[in-house]
Design goal:
Elements: H1 6-11, E1 19-25, H2 31-36, E2 45-51, H3 55-64, E3 68-74, H4 86-89, H5 98-101, E4 130-139, E5 149-155, E6 168-172, E7 186-189, E8 203-209, E9 212-214, E10 221-223, H6 225-231, E11 238-245, E12 258-264, H7 269-279, H8 281-286, E13 295-302, H9 311-320, E14 325-331, H10 345-351, H11 353-360, E15 365-371, H12 375-389, H13 394-403, E16 407-411
Parallel strand pairs: 12-13, 12-15, 13-14, 15-16
Antiparallel strand pairs: 1-2, 1-3, 4-5, 4-11, 5-8, 6-7, 6-11, 9-10
Helix pairs in contact: 10-12
């Protein structure tokens, strides 16, 4: 796979240097990195080609950016890895031609399973993306809300891009970056089920907020390159997409599971896909082997009521399945926490920590967290206090949940 990050671009040297490929997870996504063009998502892998002479330097850069190297493989002169990891055997990182990536026969998404060995990974790569066409681009923020956030639906007809709920796809914006090189892809969580919003296996949808921030030195308003591009797409526009990526946020097979979902802002995207799969009539009809009968609990943090993304959908599902779906809002600019300050998602978790802790004692309970990285410390603090009452070290317990595949985090 060709390098898709600015790190890798910086690491390229002459063809005569012995090269190694780092597989990295967990690189941070923030305002600065979005503007610079890094393709980052904690549940997906980034592959970086590094010459031997710069291995230590690049390792240090990855560490500073919050990344973790999970494998290092030497490259042969053709750019292929000499050693292949388990994920690469499943299509995760081995080089492939454009002809291989664009298979003529499309497999229906209904054949994709939650079992990790069967998860589709990197069907389309940066050097051979799929060209999708925009079907619709609808605003999600209601009047009086803050910022711009869009629900964008893409047509995948004619390709082989299939995916599962909880995965991400990459979008490559047009144009050149500040260094005169083609823009790098950015990763976005998929907001639709494997069957797509139209339930016909030919679409994928994203929930994208336009990034906007003040430059720390000049005070100038800066807009995210890719998020602005996506938010301004029109029906009929063609877009280069890659992926899918990610195995961290997949739903369990268990129809009786308890699914706790903690989301801020556009972190709602994978949970919309989960909830559609669980509760939408048309989706349930397509999935006779998965009829959710457990409990789904969404705690959703947003600044104002008009910023509640997919509000009508969420509340309709809650009304129809009151015994199976709980919906809790943390509206920071309208609600107060116990100390009289703004209500954030971590305060809601603290309010319900005793009940959630009890749920965590069941092996059927999974916790998913998606959105701003800043919520993690507060959520850890809430669970830590509850665990301490039982004489348990929370960090150790959380590590056990992670190893058991019951603690899923995708923050940025």
């Amino acid at each position: 796979m060709n390098n898709s990050t600015a790190l890798g671009a910086a690491a390229n040297t002459s063809a005569g240097s012995r090269m190694y490929r780092y597989e990295v997870i967990g690189l941070r996504q923030n305002a600065a990195t979005d503007n610079l063009g890094y393709s980052i998502r904690s549940s997906g892998s980034t592959f970086i080609n590094v010459p031997y002479s710069r291995m230590n330097e690049v390792m240090q850069r990855i560490t500073r950016m919050g990344g973790k190297i999970v494998s290092i493989n030497p490259l042969d002169p053709n750019g292929a890895t000499a050693n292949v990891t388990a994920e690469q055997k499943n299509g995760g990182a081995t080089p492939e031609t454009k002809q291989e990536a664009q298979k003529p026969e499309k497999q229906p998404m209904t054949q994709a399973k939650e079992k990790r060995a069967d998860v589709p990974i990197n069907i389309y790569r940066p050097n051979a993306p799929f060209v999708a066409r925009v079907i619709s681009n609808e605003p999600l923020v209601q009047e009086g809300g803050i910022g711009i956030c869009q629900h964008v639906k893409f047509d995948l007809s004619g390709g082989d891009l299939r995916y599962l709920e909880g995965q991400s796809i990459g979008v490559i914006p047009p144009g050149l970056d500040k260094n005169g090189k083609p823009e790098k892809l950015r990763l976005y969580s998929i907001g639709s089920t494997r069957h797509g919003d139209d339930l016909n296996d030919t679409t994928v949808s994203l929930c994208v907020r336009q990034l906007e921030y003040k430059h720390p030195e000049t005070g100038e308003t800066v807009y995210g390159v890719c998020s602005t591009y996506i938010c301004n797409l029109k029906p009929g526009d063609e877009v280069k997409v890659t992926g899918p990526t990610g195995k961290e946020m997949l739903l369990p097979d268990d129809e009786d599971a308890t699914i706790i979902m903690l989301a801020t802002g556009t972190g709602i995207a994978p949970f919309r896909a989960f909830l559609w799969r669980m509760f939408k009539d048309g989706e349930r009809a397509l999935n006779p082997d998965y009829q959710f009968k457990g409990l789904a609990w969404l705690v959703f943090g947003i600044p104002t009521t008009p910023n509640i993304l997919y509000k009508k959908e969420l509340e309709e599902m809650q009304a129809k399945y009151p015994d199976n779906f709980r919906l809790t809002y943390a509206i920071s600019r309208e609600q107060q926490n116990a100390e009289g300050g703004r209500m954030y998602i971590q305060h809601r978790v603290a309010e319900h920590a005793e009940e959630m802790w009890e749920m965590l004692q069941s092996p059927k309970t999974h916790v998913y967290m998606c959105g701003l990285k800043g919520m993690e410390d507060g959520i850890d603090e809430a669970f830590s206090a509850q665990a301490a009452k039982a004489g348990i070290d929370w960090k150790e317990y959380r590590s056990q949940l992670k190893k058991a595949g019951r603690w899923h985090v995708e923050t940025y």
